[in-house]
């Protein structure tokens, strides 16, 4: 939890700004005024109070800032360490142009579909339906006879 984000204040906010943000958020999530889920409001109020306790106390705020800064620095150094197994993703101009060509083809096909008449679309749908029926009612039943046909041919030789 980042107390600055929780209260919605900048890192260099004064105590007055922090207190003002704290009071506004408490009023916003007050159970008498809040129309949403009461358990959510209670959880938000707990986080707001916790953030205010950290930022209103000078020692706790300095401790949080130091710990946060060292955490940020630790992540910076981890990124800088050479990793021979990491391959940085690269995009060449060729990849970009290939992607653009694919997108252009898809757009052109969509435009053809949009510009086609209703009769043309219905004809294509009927043709597709005929192929599906042909496949399931003619070709698939024929497939069950193929093993028997192979055994018959083998037995003949």
Distance between the termini: 79 Å
Computed over alpha carbons, the radius of gyration is 34 Å
Task: Point out poorly predicted stretches.
Answer: none
The ordered string of helix (H) and strand (E) elements is: HHHHHHH
Described by strand count, sense and barrel closure, the largest sheet is:
none
Helix content: over 70%
What's the overall geometry?
elongated
User: Mean pLDDT, rounded to whole units?
Assistant: 80
Characteristics of this structure?
single chain; 157 residues; mainly alpha; 7 helices; 77% helix; elongated
Description:
With 157 residues, the protein is mainly alpha-helical. Helix content is 77%, strand content 0%. It contains 7 helices and no strands. The radius of gyration is 34 Å and the shape is elongated.
